[in-house]
Amino acid sequence: MDKVEITGLVLAGGRAQRMGGVDKGLQLLHGRPLVAHVLERLAPQVGTLMISANRHLDKYAAFGVPVLADAEPDFKGPLAGLLAGLGAAGTAWLACAPCDAPQLPADLVARLAAARGTAQVVLPRGPDGRVQPLYALMSTTLRHSLAAALKAGQRRVTDWMLAHEHRIIDLDADFPNINSLDDLQALND
Rounded to two decimals, what is the model's pTM? Predict the structure, then answer.
């Protein structure tokens, strides 16, 4: 699969409750917002980029890529951001990454795409054995399925993804998320 067939979506639309409600993507790591680090890592892996955000849209727009807000304003979670991305992508595939993953593997999307086969969703599993659904590659044809799932009250990303033809690939390296201000401070030190 050629990277021009893939749109990258950085998920920055959450409430960041574990960070005290700050806008996680705009928190600084080495003087730059977290979202800038993720965009930089994801850009060479995809044809185009977008950001899913629900606050500070003007600040996210300053990064020069389209910014998508959830269709509903009540923070329905990452699935709502994925739905916005699936609807706006002008490509057959969407690769997502959370805004709090500045160490995103430089070859993640290529590895997911290489493992695709006939799957509609490809998800990585870290060395800890946990599936990481917010780093997935998925067919944009799943937009209608996701809209129906959200309407029915679905909120669990992994459950929705695993309900479709999928593949899970094992990654040999961990790429931790920054889930707290303490995590961020530790990386800044």
Answer: 0.93
